[in-house]
């Protein structure tokens, strides 16, 4: 818990040289410039002196009040003053191992959040976040004095504070953390700020405990900070963890940074040039050099043998409106040499954590390449603080309503978090949950694909159609039989790319379920868990309310696919129930008429005939490829017409995905439409696709469109067309 994260010798870590490893000293010294430092010794003295006079903001929270008003000028500080008074009086007499009053910890956590722009409710809960766990204050008292919202947050953080970071406890601990985060992202915001302050003061602990906490921070909390978009917390946590877990690499990286600083900032003259270009173009913009943090420099150094001076930072261009971002981009690409491969547009397609910016890189006249980030001031605020910058997500009356089981409507909940919440509920095994959670958090990039109804699905990079199916339909995706990607038929194993359009095809009767191969293509926990659950017990109906999917009596594993002789339905063999009847005629004497098998014309198709050997005229549709070939050979067409009779013969091709009973269902649809099967063939399956070819006798040619629609509606069939195979006249 937070009380363990203390400093030796009772000296503030922000003011003294750390007596911990040198790596931690350099981390404290290398923090972002401009971030206010909290004087814990002064605050400790103020805390011991008690609250301020009536009507005044206590001196101990002056830093918090100043930072809060910078983001929220009209904020009412009264509730913060009352929260501080309760927290100080409740923690009075409690000391950190460093000898500082314990109240300095919630004060430091609250200041971190205030600097990020958190709204008043979050700061109030932050001041009180340890009171229920470590003092005699009860949740009911918090509710009575500060309302349901603050009580809800304090309760959520209290549950997270009861974390035993032993290896055996981690899976269930972080399941609870995820649930708490999903109910209100502000709970995790407070937890992340709490962890940051504890990591800043981690040196008092035994080295092995430092390593254990740093590993948990790296594997779970830093990825969560990334997904919540709180980059300011994420980057500092990364550097602190880097210093503990890779002290040698950290020392080398800091030496590189210090050496570059001694040579002067090579990005400064490029920044001046950019300012001049934008000023001349009439674009109001703020251009600053943004140094890379230690982990970022380390990553770049691993890609390049020799770091360039411009690799130690990036240019940040801040403008007022979205359109200005593209105007800046145009000027930079006009006046400098752009590195096109470095361009990314995260404004048109924001990242999954709300991040928006234009990324580019340009080369100056001397060949120096500078990376440039272009964003509005509001984008920058969200890029730094993520969901913290969005304020109170329950400010609107209709968004604050509760729903069953403690779930609340949260407009800021990211899509990835909603998905994690869904699959964690279906994973009773904590170890399986833990493994899946870490695998999901390890995904550092997300893509967006478009559904056929215009909606979107967020997926990790490398996800397949299988993942899209379970993301869209949940366990109903067990009945998925294929997909169209960007309008073209695709297998479920197809890996999706950012911006793809995906139409998922489901079997209406849900007669089939996932195969073991699906696990090889699934990348998301939701898909893997659902598939594994079905394979382990296919006879069990799941939460989606689907019918049981056990195999029908008498079927074996081999009959789950479709082959020419599978599921021997009567229509799967050659047969003729009546003699062939043609309903096209010609005026030529002593010839017979035959309908061409390549295009299977039926009334009222526009048709042409060509005389062939044996006194036969073959009839083709005008658009048939064979007509063009015959004309090219100089063959003259013969006039043909349809008789008054309405019955006709046609050959149809049904394209489908293999599944049990498909052949029987198709022949039933044909019979229901009033057609008779003259012959039928089924080609061997290829990549789970099957082609059926039927020659059918219809009592009325006008019924052909309805027949084809009925065949298309059979589950598993994705296309039905008239036969168009190559043929000669």
Summarize the structure.
With 729 residues, the protein is of the alpha+beta class. It has 25 helices and 20 strands. The strands form five sheets. Strands 1, 2, 3, 4, 5 and 6 form a six-stranded mixed beta sheet that branches.
Provide keyphrases for this structure.
single chain, 729 residues, 5-stranded mixed sheet, 20 strands
Number of strands: 20
Poorly predicted sequence stretches spanning 5 or more consecutive residues: 1-41, 47-54, 164-169, 396-413, 540-574, 576-581
The class by helix and strand makeup works out as: alpha+beta
Please state the overall shape, judged from the principal axes of the Cα atoms.
Answer: elongated
Q: What's the story with the biggest beta sheet?
A: 6 strands, mixed
How many helical elements?
A: 25
What is the arithmetic mean of pLDDT?
A: 75
Q: What is the terminal-to-terminal distance? A: 86 Å
Strand content bin: 15-25%
Instruction: Provide the helix percentage.
Output: 40-55%
**Rg (C-alpha, Å):** 35 Å
